Amino acid sequence: MGCCAGKPQPPLLLLLLALVLQLWSPCVGADPERPSSIPTDKLLVITVATKESDGFHRFMQSAKYFNYTVKVLGQGEEWRGGAGINSIGGGQKVRLMKEVMEHYANQEDLVVLFTECFDVIFAGGPEEVLKKFQKSNHKVVFAADGILWPDKRLADKYPIVHFGKRYLNSGGFIGYAPYINRIVQQWNLQDNDDDQLFYTKIYIDPLKREAINITLDHKCKIFQTLNGAVDEVVLKFENGKARAKNVFYETLPVALNGNGPTKILLNYFGNYVPNAWTQDNGCTLCDLDTIDLSTVDVHPNVTIGIFIEQPTPFLPRFLDILLTLDYPKEALKLFIHNKEVYHEKDIKVFFDKAKHEISTIKIVGPEENLSQAEARNMGMDFCRQDESCDYYFSIDADVVLTNPRTLKILIEQNRKIIAPLVTRHGKLWSNFWGALSPDGYYARSEDYVDIVQGNRVGIWNVPYMANVYLIKGKTLRSEMNERNYFVRDKLDPDMALCRNAREMTLQREKDSPTPETFQMLSPPKVLFLFIFIYFCLFN
């Protein structure tokens, strides 16, 4: 008669049912496909550097700051990957990647990030890059570019992109090791063939692209190539630290790549990112790799190049100040170029005083009829040809050094080329430029005024300097071993020096405490050799 139909359920059974449902409820809405975060120790950065340069060391400093694990390929090899930044090439990098990736081919949980190093700076750390890579939901992500290189005929073969950069850039990519291995194992070309063209042809092949699951970093979330994007990227400070931001896509790229003609902009970012200068701590690199002259028994030998290229007021005072420099006179030699007959009497008076303290004084007078460029080449070569010359200190006669320790301070910074900031009292004029215009002349960088006024104190990598600077002798005998640095088309000698230095940098890459003002009486680069020119402000 259905006697059980109306029988109530035992309360205990209902309680057990409710408890089971409660235990399971947090999992009901979970995404079973959502992967767990990749541990940072499963990320390996790979780069290629057949030679170490200042650009390489800057890259490694940024990697060390974020605790990246970096494997460097090609060390000690001859570079056979092409002639320079405006030519095709780079296949040697793919060949090296092909060789090394064989060892990681079966490590399915390993993520490999390949990047250039001479013109790249990390702006974010492993955790950030892995998170962004996972969100891409692809096995391999290449950097994206707004410029198609090297074969513009391939433009139509690229997938349509409605918002973002469309073209592949091989300067940076990230992916799971087995999938990157599948890509590089297809390489069967020569070292001087083009790496970007190789990767491009794989990407634009729909079957290969889908089989390997490749995409581009269209909105520069991981990789920021600066060529063609100069107006998109700005420096921003967040919590006192600097970061490069793409204001067009509202993204914070992890790796900045100064590809093509954007090395100067990258150098500007490198003055701050990731921690070179912060609002809270100021210059964090000023004490890096410095030397302490107070601990040495014998000071380095310095040749001082003095240039009197025009009638100069107070020249006797300028010359006397040189003799008051806080530096052992037995370690000094002088090269003096005087273009003005009017100043010959001043030079004689100075020579009669200085010869008792300084053993070697070479004077080139107006009778030699040398141009300013020829004289500066001669002065630099005077140190270059002298194996005992450890430093070359060039100074124009219209610069007044108000700190006797200037020379020591410059040497202790231990840079290839370094210059003190020279300003005019109460003016924004100085002896450096923070940026260049498209035609290679002066442009004001965002930080120029703050540096000149002493609000930002530190070491700055800049594209132009003049009037007073220090160069290591071994740099003159290696990276700068050509004799003619001050002649270039119709440029002034200082412009010629800096342009030659900058262009040498580009080829080689593909190969303060409180401020003091130095007075200049009339108006008148680096070697981040790479080429660096550093600018320092001093007590």
UniProtKB/TrEMBL annotation:
Keyword Aminoacyl-tRNA synthetase: no
A GO cellular component entry from the record: endoplasmic reticulum
UniProt-listed Gene3D superfamilies: Spore Coat Polysaccharide Biosynthesis Protein SpsA, Chain A
Coiled coil regions, renumbered to chain: none
Keywords (A to Z) from UniProt: Signal
Molecular-function GO terms, alphabetical: procollagen-lysine 5-dioxygenase activity
All residue ranges annotated as the PLOD1-3-like GT domain in the record: 40-283
Xref: CDD domains: GT_LH2
Signal peptide: 1-29
Name the record gives this protein: Procollagen--oxoglutarate
